[in-house]
Design a protein that fits this description.
Layout (H helix, E strand, L loop, with lengths): L1 H15 L2 H20 L4 H12 L2 H10 L2 H26 L9 H23 L4 H4 L1 H23 L5 H26 L1
Helix pairs in contact: 1-2, 1-3, 2-3, 5-6, 5-8, 5-9, 6-8, 8-9
Protein backbone atom coordinates (compact mmCIF):
# COMPACT_ATOMS: atom_id res chain seq x y z
CA UNK A 1 0.00 0.00 0.00
CA UNK A 2 2.68 2.53 0.96
CA UNK A 3 4.83 1.97 -2.12
CA UNK A 4 1.73 2.24 -4.29
CA UNK A 5 0.97 5.72 -2.89
CA UNK A 6 4.49 6.89 -3.60
CA UNK A 7 4.59 5.17 -7.00
CA UNK A 8 1.34 6.88 -8.01
CA UNK A 9 2.73 10.24 -6.95
CA UNK A 10 5.98 9.60 -8.85
CA UNK A 11 4.03 8.57 -11.96
CA UNK A 12 2.24 11.92 -11.75
CA UNK A 13 5.53 13.78 -11.46
CA UNK A 14 7.10 11.96 -14.40
CA UNK A 15 3.98 12.42 -16.48
CA UNK A 16 3.78 16.17 -15.93
CA UNK A 17 7.37 17.38 -15.53
CA UNK A 18 10.59 17.01 -17.53
CA UNK A 19 12.58 13.96 -16.40
CA UNK A 20 15.34 15.96 -14.70
CA UNK A 21 12.86 17.95 -12.63
CA UNK A 22 10.85 14.84 -11.81
CA UNK A 23 14.10 13.14 -10.72
CA UNK A 24 14.86 16.10 -8.44
CA UNK A 25 11.40 16.00 -6.89
CA UNK A 26 11.48 12.20 -6.59
CA UNK A 27 14.76 12.46 -4.68
CA UNK A 28 13.16 14.84 -2.21
CA UNK A 29 10.19 12.54 -1.76
CA UNK A 30 12.48 9.55 -1.21
CA UNK A 31 14.40 11.51 1.44
CA UNK A 32 11.16 12.44 3.22
CA UNK A 33 10.04 8.79 3.14
CA UNK A 34 13.38 7.55 4.49
CA UNK A 35 13.33 10.20 7.21
CA UNK A 36 9.88 9.05 8.31
CA UNK A 37 11.02 5.42 8.36
CA UNK A 38 14.13 6.36 10.36
CA UNK A 39 11.89 8.15 12.86
CA UNK A 40 10.16 4.83 13.52
CA UNK A 41 7.02 5.16 11.40
CA UNK A 42 5.54 2.07 9.82
CA UNK A 43 5.91 1.94 6.04
CA UNK A 44 2.31 2.95 5.31
CA UNK A 45 2.40 5.81 7.82
CA UNK A 46 5.82 6.89 6.55
CA UNK A 47 4.51 7.06 2.98
CA UNK A 48 1.46 9.09 3.98
CA UNK A 49 3.56 11.45 6.11
CA UNK A 50 6.16 11.87 3.35
CA UNK A 51 3.45 12.69 0.82
CA UNK A 52 1.80 15.15 3.20
CA UNK A 53 5.16 16.79 3.88
CA UNK A 54 6.01 16.94 0.20
CA UNK A 55 2.70 18.48 -0.81
CA UNK A 56 -0.17 17.97 -3.19
CA UNK A 57 0.97 16.89 -6.67
CA UNK A 58 -0.94 19.69 -8.39
CA UNK A 59 0.68 22.29 -6.13
CA UNK A 60 4.18 20.89 -6.68
CA UNK A 61 3.75 20.80 -10.47
CA UNK A 62 2.27 24.31 -10.43
CA UNK A 63 5.31 25.61 -8.54
CA UNK A 64 7.74 24.03 -11.00
CA UNK A 65 5.65 25.48 -13.84
CA UNK A 66 5.66 28.94 -12.26
CA UNK A 67 9.46 28.87 -12.14
CA UNK A 68 9.96 27.35 -15.61
CA UNK A 69 12.63 29.08 -17.71
CA UNK A 70 10.26 29.04 -20.70
CA UNK A 71 7.60 30.90 -18.76
CA UNK A 72 10.08 33.55 -17.64
CA UNK A 73 11.53 33.92 -21.14
CA UNK A 74 8.07 34.23 -22.68
CA UNK A 75 7.11 36.92 -20.18
CA UNK A 76 10.29 38.85 -20.89
CA UNK A 77 9.78 38.70 -24.65
CA UNK A 78 6.15 39.73 -24.31
CA UNK A 79 7.15 42.62 -22.07
CA UNK A 80 9.77 43.89 -24.52
CA UNK A 81 7.56 43.30 -27.57
CA UNK A 82 5.51 46.50 -27.30
CA UNK A 83 8.70 48.57 -26.95
CA UNK A 84 10.21 46.97 -30.05
CA UNK A 85 6.91 47.20 -31.92
CA UNK A 86 6.49 50.88 -31.05
CA UNK A 87 10.03 51.67 -32.18
CA UNK A 88 9.50 49.85 -35.44
CA UNK A 89 6.06 51.41 -36.01
CA UNK A 90 7.39 54.93 -35.51
CA UNK A 91 10.45 54.31 -37.67
CA UNK A 92 8.53 52.68 -40.50
CA UNK A 93 5.78 55.31 -40.55
CA UNK A 94 8.23 58.21 -40.59
CA UNK A 95 10.28 56.44 -43.26
CA UNK A 96 7.17 55.76 -45.36
CA UNK A 97 7.94 52.04 -45.49
CA UNK A 98 4.83 51.31 -47.54
CA UNK A 99 6.73 52.80 -50.50
CA UNK A 100 9.67 50.40 -50.13
CA UNK A 101 10.08 47.56 -52.62
CA UNK A 102 8.91 44.77 -50.30
CA UNK A 103 6.48 42.24 -51.83
CA UNK A 104 3.08 42.03 -50.12
CA UNK A 105 3.54 38.29 -49.53
CA UNK A 106 6.68 39.00 -47.50
CA UNK A 107 4.86 41.60 -45.39
CA UNK A 108 1.93 39.24 -44.83
CA UNK A 109 4.22 36.32 -43.97
CA UNK A 110 6.14 38.48 -41.50
CA UNK A 111 2.92 39.53 -39.78
CA UNK A 112 1.54 35.98 -39.67
CA UNK A 113 4.75 34.60 -38.16
CA UNK A 114 4.81 37.39 -35.61
CA UNK A 115 1.20 36.69 -34.63
CA UNK A 116 1.84 32.94 -34.23
CA UNK A 117 4.97 33.56 -32.15
CA UNK A 118 3.14 36.01 -29.89
CA UNK A 119 0.31 33.52 -29.40
CA UNK A 120 2.79 30.76 -28.49
CA UNK A 121 4.60 33.09 -26.07
CA UNK A 122 1.28 34.07 -24.50
CA UNK A 123 0.38 30.43 -23.89
CA UNK A 124 3.85 29.79 -22.39
CA UNK A 125 3.75 32.92 -20.23
CA UNK A 126 0.31 32.23 -18.81
CA UNK A 127 0.72 28.52 -18.09
CA UNK A 128 0.09 27.81 -14.43
CA UNK A 129 -0.25 24.04 -14.17
CA UNK A 130 1.10 22.59 -17.43
CA UNK A 131 4.87 22.63 -17.66
CA UNK A 132 4.74 21.41 -21.28
CA UNK A 133 3.08 24.65 -22.34
CA UNK A 134 6.05 26.64 -21.08
CA UNK A 135 8.16 24.84 -23.67
CA UNK A 136 6.36 26.78 -26.41
CA UNK A 137 8.77 29.60 -25.58
CA UNK A 138 11.61 27.43 -26.90
CA UNK A 139 9.78 27.18 -30.24
CA UNK A 140 8.65 30.82 -30.42
CA UNK A 141 11.91 32.46 -29.31
CA UNK A 142 13.89 31.54 -32.45
CA UNK A 143 11.00 32.84 -34.55
CA UNK A 144 11.12 36.19 -32.72
CA UNK A 145 14.91 36.20 -33.14
CA UNK A 146 14.55 35.57 -36.89
CA UNK A 147 11.87 38.25 -37.23
CA UNK A 148 14.02 40.81 -35.42
CA UNK A 149 16.97 39.89 -37.63
CA UNK A 150 14.80 40.02 -40.76
CA UNK A 151 13.46 43.46 -39.81
CA UNK A 152 16.98 44.80 -39.32
CA UNK A 153 18.22 43.21 -42.55
CA UNK A 154 15.14 44.41 -44.43
CA UNK A 155 15.85 47.98 -43.42
CA UNK A 156 19.43 47.70 -44.64
CA UNK A 157 18.27 46.25 -47.97
CA UNK A 158 15.09 48.23 -48.67
CA UNK A 159 15.27 51.57 -46.87
CA UNK A 160 16.28 54.46 -49.10
CA UNK A 161 18.09 56.09 -46.14
CA UNK A 162 18.97 55.01 -42.62
CA UNK A 163 17.30 57.47 -40.25
CA UNK A 164 17.93 57.75 -36.54
CA UNK A 165 14.50 56.19 -35.87
CA UNK A 166 15.36 53.19 -38.04
CA UNK A 167 18.73 52.91 -36.30
CA UNK A 168 16.99 52.98 -32.90
CA UNK A 169 14.51 50.28 -33.96
CA UNK A 170 17.39 48.17 -35.24
CA UNK A 171 19.24 48.64 -31.93
CA UNK A 172 16.16 47.47 -30.00
CA UNK A 173 15.89 44.41 -32.25
CA UNK A 174 19.59 43.66 -31.89
CA UNK A 175 19.21 43.86 -28.10
CA UNK A 176 16.33 41.38 -28.25
CA UNK A 177 18.40 39.10 -30.48
CA UNK A 178 21.17 39.12 -27.87
CA UNK A 179 18.63 38.44 -25.11
CA UNK A 180 17.13 35.51 -27.00
CA UNK A 181 20.55 34.09 -27.88
CA UNK A 182 21.47 34.22 -24.18
CA UNK A 183 18.16 32.61 -23.14
CA UNK A 184 17.83 29.84 -25.75
CA UNK A 185 20.37 27.42 -24.23
CA UNK A 186 18.46 27.52 -20.93
CA UNK A 187 15.20 26.82 -22.73
CA UNK A 188 16.69 23.84 -24.57
CA UNK A 189 17.67 22.26 -21.24
CA UNK A 190 14.17 22.46 -19.76
Amino acid sequence: MSRALIDDYLAGLYGRLPADLADEAAGGLAEAFERQLAAGSAEAAAAKAALAEFGDLDVVVAEYTRQAPGRRAARLLLATGPVAGSCWAAALIVSRAWTWPVPPAVRLGFGALLLLAVLALTVAATSRRDYRRTRLAAAASPVILALDAAAAAGVLLAAPALTWLLAMAMAVSLSRIALIAWTLPRLALR
